[in-house]
Amino acid sequence: MKRNVIRIICVVVIVIALIYIISATMQYKKAETEYTDLHTYTDETEEKDFIEVDYESLKNLNGDFIGWLYACDGNISYPLVQSRDNEDYLKTTFNGSRNIAGCIFADYRTPAFDSYQTIIYGHSMNDGSMFRRLVEYKNAEYCRQYPFFYIYTPEGRRKYEIFSVYKDKPYAAALAYEDKAEERVGLVRSIADKSMHSISAPDNIISGGGAVVTLVTCDVSNDRYRIIVNGKRVE
């Protein structure tokens, strides 16, 4: 009798696991199709790492649209949104569909690109999409290979040079939610000191709003931790 109960439990667990895998796979494909279609609102140019973005059309599609993020030689290339909280886009895509892939979004507690540090979140998806490539920055060679990322806004392209990559628990990350002058003084240094790599990035940095952009995603090896990639604006 006990063996039969154990067998039934095992079968149920396997069936539930298969249903979850199938459901997740279907959602991955739907999200991939949606975000691929959104690339029709961008055009590549002859200049490397430079794209043209139809901001007006994307804004009409989603009023929360604030820009386009381009990183890792285009392996990360997504519209960027900012909402009233950090829950809206955890499981909602740019077009408003319910999906585990969610959307790339800026932290609501700091006005994106107006405050000194802008914090941007994205899921690390098992199919390699969204912010999954950020996990590769744990490898120093990958960091040397892709030292820049770009954010396109209606005001123009912003170029960021990565100066720190670290792994930490969410509450221990160097994130400033209030834009105070006294916080700015030590923020860049505290971020740089946490880096797992010795990055030879010059001290140059464009001051003002959006001087530092921090990209945050879950570490696939332990989702209690975050991989945090930090860039300083150089253009």
Q: How are the elements arranged and paired?
A:
Blueprint: H1 2-38, E1 42-44, E2 51-53, H2 55-61, E3 65-71, E4 76-82, E5 104-106, E6 117-121, H3 140-145, E7 148-153, E8 156-168, H4 181-193, E9 212-219, E10 222-233
Parallel strand pairs: 4-5, 6-9
Antiparallel strand pairs: 1-2, 3-4, 3-7, 5-6, 7-8, 8-10, 9-10
> Architecture in CATH?
Beta Barrel
Order of H and E elements? HEEHEEEEHEEHEE
Report strand %. Answer: 25-35%
The average pLDDT score comes to: 88
Structural notes for this entry:
With 235 residues, the chain is α+β, with helices and mostly antiparallel strands. It has a single domain (39-233), classed as Sortase, Chain: A. It is 27% helix and 29% strand. The chain contains 4 helices and 10 strands, in the order αββαββββαββαββ. The chain has helices at residues 2-38, 55-61, 140-145, 181-193, and strands spanning 42-44, 51-53, 65-71, 76-82, 104-106, 117-121, 148-153, 156-168, 212-219, 222-233. The strands form 2 sheets. An 8-stranded mixed β-barrel has the order 3-4-5-6-9-10-8-7. Strands 1-2 form a two-stranded antiparallel sheet. Strand 3 and strand 4 (76-82) form a beta hairpin. It is globular.
Sum up the structure in keywords.
Sortase, Chain: A, alpha+beta, 27% helix, eight-stranded mixed beta barrel, 235 residues, 10 strands, 4 helices, two-stranded antiparallel sheet
Concise summary:
The chain has helices at residues 2-38, 55-61, 140-145, 181-193; strands at 42-44, 51-53, 65-71, 76-82, 104-106, 117-121, 148-153, 156-168, 212-219, 222-233. It contains four helices and ten strands, in the order H-E-E-H-E-E-E-E-H-E-E-H-E-E. 27% of the residues lie in helices and 29% in strands.
